[in-house]
Amino acid sequence: MKKIIWVIVSSVAVVFLMYHFSVQSQNNRLENALAVQYSNQLTSASEKLTKLTESVDQTMLFTDKEALEQPLDDVWRISSDIRTSISSLPISSETSTVWMNYLNRLGNGAAQVKNGEVPIEEWQKNMVSTRENLQALSDQWAFTNKDGGNKDYIVTAFVQNKLDKNGEKNWKSLGNSVKAYTESDFPMTASETDQQKKKDLQHIKDSEITEDEAKEQFVKLFPEFKDAKIHITESSQDAPYPFYHIEFHEGIRIGYADLTKKGGHILSFLLERPFEKTTITVQQMKDKSAEYMKTLGFTDTEMVEYRENSVAWHLSFARKDENNDALIYADGIQLKIAKDNGELLGLNAMEYIQKEKIGKQEIVPLDNVGLFSSNFYIEEERLAYVENKQLEQRLAYQVLAKNDTIGTYKIYIDTENHEILHADKLP
């Protein structure tokens, strides 16, 4: 009898342990899912806060009513979006209520300024402290999401706020929350930029060259590889335009280059080799890059940016319009130069080869005093071509406006209708 009772008790214990293990495994999986979901929500909220602060900064940049419309709209929209993010997280109701009220007042204030109900001067004065408050909120998010979204901390800080009055986890409710957080509220739409088709180089009037002529052109552009082993193939039929692909090998150097079949214009160049520990100066880098651009025939360009990593300098150039010296960023060239000796390691001229079609446009003088806030001063102004929302190339004033507290903005203003095309905060 005792043996039978022992068997029954053991069986029940095994079943109980298996059930407990199954439930615990299910709970652990749900905890992991919640931790990931809440961490993603926090990261998203932090990104939105950064965008909101940038939009607030832009409302302090201008005094012109039309120039203020977009940043004020952004403040209203993003503040509303962040309120939704906060409400979807299981944080304390007190914290949630305080910040949702604050963001609601911020969004409503932006709408009032846009509608002319509040003077822009009063708004800009209040925004000085608002920027600090938004930064404080951002710091709170960063602390809450510390350790890169550590699972144990996220579960402790957030999942525990989902406990019922008896302290028991309502796993069904949590599971529904995960599903709700995961599903998207809006269907995905195709990007408008996907509608822009590839160009076919119709503006190049040169005749096609042969493989032998392509090899001659390559050696002419890069005489240091005249003795290299060279192999040439043609591009595939689905390429955006016909070109010759050149592979070359000389000693420790291996590289590739692409030349257009029409005229043999250089599209790209890439060189691979070991690097030394020496480093050339910035001025030497600039001199080397100017020499390469001249040799390769890109004399109508100007350097617009450069940066570095451990082995190379990366430079960006833009073509200059022959009529007004305006920078055409869409016709860009990128160079890669070795830090040890300044050797050319890479070239990308595909954008330059495609060449944007630029139309005539009136240049109406810009009233900086009426456009910008008095807290900003103009460091530089020049002309440049950039895209508007309709993906059209528009001639614009490229203005560097600086505020000692907020920072420096690069702003592009249409020369004809003075529309603000882009306003980017510089690092």
UniProtKB/TrEMBL annotation:
Q: Mind listing the GO biological process terms from this record? A: spore germination
- Top-level division of the source organism's lineage: Bacteria
All copies of domain Sporulation protein YpeB PepSY1 and PepSY2, residue ranges? 169-356
Q: Where is the Sporulation protein YpeB N-terminal domain?
A: 26-126
What the entry lists under InterPro entries is as follows: YpeB_N, YpeB_PepSY1-2
For this UniProt entry, which segments traverse the membrane? none
| Protein name from the UniProt record | Germination protein YpeB
